[in-house]
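Reposting from the mailing list since nobody answered there.

I have sequence plus structure tokens for a pair of proteins and want to know whether others read the tokens the same way I do. The first protein:
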Amino acid sequence: MMQQTIPVLFRVRIDTQPNEVVCVVGDCDELGNWDPHCAVELGRDHRSHQSEIWSREIRVKSADIKYRYFTCFLKQPDNEDDKQVDVMITRWETNIRPRRFHAFGIAGNSSDYEQESGAAIFGRYDGRQKIGKGWLTGQTEIQLRLYNNPIVMWKQSRKRQRYQVACKTMDLRYTDVSMELDDEDSHDQILSPRTEQNVQISVLNSDFNEDLVTPRTAPQFGTLYNEGDFFIFKAQSFEPDNMGFTFNFYEESAEGSTDPPRHVGYAYVLPINMKDTQNIRSIPIHGVRHKPIGQLTVDYLKIKPLKDVDLRNDMSVTYAKHWKQRPSLEVGHRGMGSSYSKECAAVTENTVASLNAAGGHGADYVEFDVQLSADFHPVIYHDFEVCLTLRGKKKKDELQLFKLPVKSLTLDQLHQLQVNHVTALDKENDLHKEDEDPLEHQPFPTLQTCLEQIDPHTGFNVEIKYPMALVDGTHEQSPFFDQNLYVDIILTTLLRYAGNRRIIFSCFEPDICAMLRLKQNKYPVQFLTSGQTNKWTFYQCLLTRSVEYAASYSLSQDFMGINVNSEVLLNRLHMIQRIKDLGLVLFIWGDELNDPAVIKMFKNEGADGVIYDRISEFKTSDNIFKMEHEAKLQLLAQMGVLTNGSSTSAETVVNSRKLTHSQSEELSFVRTSTLY
């Protein structure tokens, strides 16, 4: 007997770019089971004479479905035997709860629909407006960065000139390039291989000008480069080995002039120039007569999709930009605190015991550091090096300390070490002391172990350790793992074992943050900034040394927020509200937070989270997520849908047979809002 189907008209109002299409995806077979590659494409509704309305009637088997709308570019398979269409998502509805259709009609407030056409408004439902950007579903993103005054013209008269920079992509499979040998004063542009797609540009600055840091299509005649600017050009492709870039340079337009700016030269960045994941290249700038007239310094980054296809995220839910307003969250630094500061923690930092103890003392999140062992296991440890104990050949009782990179030791070797912190090199130590600590107190627990053994109500602020160049010319650790490989391995562990745990990523290395954001759509990312301080040698990277640049970069890369050194903000408290006004979530870390008065001050100023060492001394309340969980269970008990009558047990079973439709909606909200 054939199962009865229900016709559902999906209809949404949205403005689209050229070649961009609108799709619907949902939790049933007919809507692709949240897989964007299996979503259903809608069509422009010409009957309404309004091209921005997209619709399609789809017959579904279920009387209760959940769904979302999204926009994308579609690439048909080159091979006829390959039926999967490549989907490059540009925007999607990111409300925690998806849209819902049930037998009584499509749920939603009347304000969520266009009254005249009966079309849903893209991104708006349940009284909220939530639209997120896409992630890498199979394509690669290439970013080209210009900074530190990268344009050098050799002719003296041109050195004083400012230039507008335009960038376009090239599809190198189409090489019918025709060059016009115009004279040097010609306004004509050099023709290049067929443009694959528009390039997005962000201009970072130190003035918090958010209009410039929002990625936008690069203008035809480029954007004026000013001294100190930080340009980021972005493009994505499913064929990155065939994608090149053309830079065109125009003299700055005279104020008030309506004439097009004068074209003076061009430069090519080709795949052969971008063999590594990240590097810096100097390429020649050619004049319109094709003779070199200068050089351009380009910093490039290639971000590949997560290698494990089965773990690439679906569209059922995302927390990447979701932040529920609460009192400031309190985060245990390395668990119970640093073991090597003036106020040493009672439990060794970055161990299972330390993380569990911090959660037991009410920490809402615990912050810890993750890096890879030589055999590619994500382990919890702060420093890039460990000190090994060496025994002398002649004098057996003569012991010495020797530094060795963590990345050069396997997981088994790390677990067999009697570990000394690098600060031990400068101290008197009893090197003969036997290590008798139980397993949970041992260093180098794996990330998987922590995910499995720490109380699930305790959120994880996972700082990804990746070495960087310092301003004094030294490097924290070089060479190191390839960035794409490094992030993929850590993400794979998180996506497999995190379950419903709250996760926030953070990192000082801006490229790692960009990868964390684009390789997955589920967890939020915060960019760490240390500022310029006399406490330690700060990083060469300008983005980490300025709150303004850190905020600009985070806006340009669609991060959830920034994580700022407390020393930087102490004398600039007004910056806290400015950061919040930009829509960024702000966490604060640093030695100053070892003073409870400073913690209170930052919380009163509106910080979303404070990270500090002495959580057992300063935290006065229980974990906020645990308290919210108990309150929600009590709500379910009042609704009369708990089978065992208990409102406090985490293992309470809900009797779905007793739920009305409204109760089912509320239960769905309770379950999804348990996170974040």
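The second protein, same order (residues first, tokens after):
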Amino acid sequence: MAAQWPEVERAEKEKRRELVLQGVDERLRQCDGRLPPALFSLSLLNYLEVSGCSELRELPADLGRLLHLQSLILCQNKLQSLPRSLERLRGLRVLDVSGNELEELPAELCELPELCTLNVSWNRLRELPPGLERCTKLAALNLARNAIRSLPAGLLSPRLSLLAAISAADNHIQELGADIRLLPALKSLDLSDNQLTEIPHELADCTKLKDINFKGNKLKDKRLEKMVNGCQTKSILEYLRAGGRGGGKGKSKPENAVKEEKKKKQRKPKRDSGGEEEEDDEPEVEDVNKMMLRVLHIAENPAALTVSVAASAKDVRPYIVCCVVRGMNLKPGNALKRFLTAQTKLHEDMCDKRTLATIATHDLQRVKGPLLYDARPPKEFTIIPLNRKEINAKELLRQLKFEAEEQRKQKKRQNVSGLHKYLHLLDGKENYPCLVDAENAVISFPPITNSDKTKIIKSTRDLLLEVTSSSSLQICKDVMDALVAKMAELNKFTLENKEEEVTSDSEADRGGDGHGHPAASPCPDAEGIRHLVLEQVRVADADGNLKVLYPSKTDLNLSSSSFAVVR
């Protein structure tokens, strides 16, 4: 007799239009890895999510019977293929198959006329099916973390007039075609960590483009690479519009290019042993490197902070990685806002809306170690959520669910925002994960919120970073790598802007040090710290056996012209 699936029975009985199945591996094992046939008789469903199932490797052709589906979320499973019957879902608007083991996509995918959002990130794809331009309503495409070598010609098509966001980071893409100009609605383009050597100047014809990321590519044009690593979207587009690689004839050069040219003229030429001048290409490269002011230094002596993992966490959310970062400067301008925005973006993209992993950042000065990573009944622990009063976990979830229902009623739609988006990640859990300090205060409640007690503020300089996951330890490490790299870039950006301001003021006011020498290069802050220091955090089980030490020698092996890792 087939195992009972109460969620499916309830959905059929109550004629529900939404169904979420998460972490149902035990039942899948009982059914030989197959979803219950009754699921595909729920003809009223317009939202179906089956996620976090390591036993789910394939879907039956019966999927095509769910003719009213508008959103199909199949993330974080072990799917190796998608059924061709997918083409029968003519009303499908959102398809998320991220975090699986797909090596190819069925051609039938291109026959979905209403498809708006396609997320195939974190798979093993080498190419996309031809004909994707037939999905004329496509607005967002996420291809990150695959093995794609090129974007198909059809993707850069005027037929995709609504395509506003393309994320193709961490692939093997070697060229971006000039046809990128044919996407009039393009606002966001992420091609970081690929194998590009050039950026086509036609990119500047995308008039709505606001956010571009080409970091981690070895561009031939070092000026352009510097702008790319400095997140200077406006400068990049101006540079490309002027012809790139130094600007075109008859065109005015962008301000950044002019500054670079002046610096190059001021450099003294090298001389060989005979006194003859040599062509000097190296100084420009060196200057680019010198401008990357942030050096990540992994401390030789790990900090005393440790984390012990209780056995109860194993069945709830078993993986945790932590790290201490010292030397962040969040005071100037909107530095804190930029840091929090970067964290949110990682949650949305790399963490796949917290389904793969969850990040928490703490003010280290407010953390009392050693720490305990535990799983407890929601009635038995309290937390002070960000910008809320102290409350026990069960009551917090009840409040958030009530708020979510009110949001739905007011907006007259199923989508919710804020913490309410993540409530379903705890469905079916008897115990909830939490990170507890030495005073028995809960400082983190993943994947929902961390505590107001350890909240990051502008004066925060030293941070405890925490990444948890129910999927794998490697995902935690990958996300931590990305978070640390982003912090280095943000700190470099802050330092560059601050030094520019100080240098300008200093030269205007003094013009030197009073002894005939130029004004000295200013320190980035009162303590003169010009690098981030990473301190290892040891995570062990209840018996003291090491589970993970981050960052280890195999972590943070990132190639970047923005920073260097000194071990």
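Reply #1 (J.P.):
I read it the same way you do. The chain has a mean pLDDT of 80.
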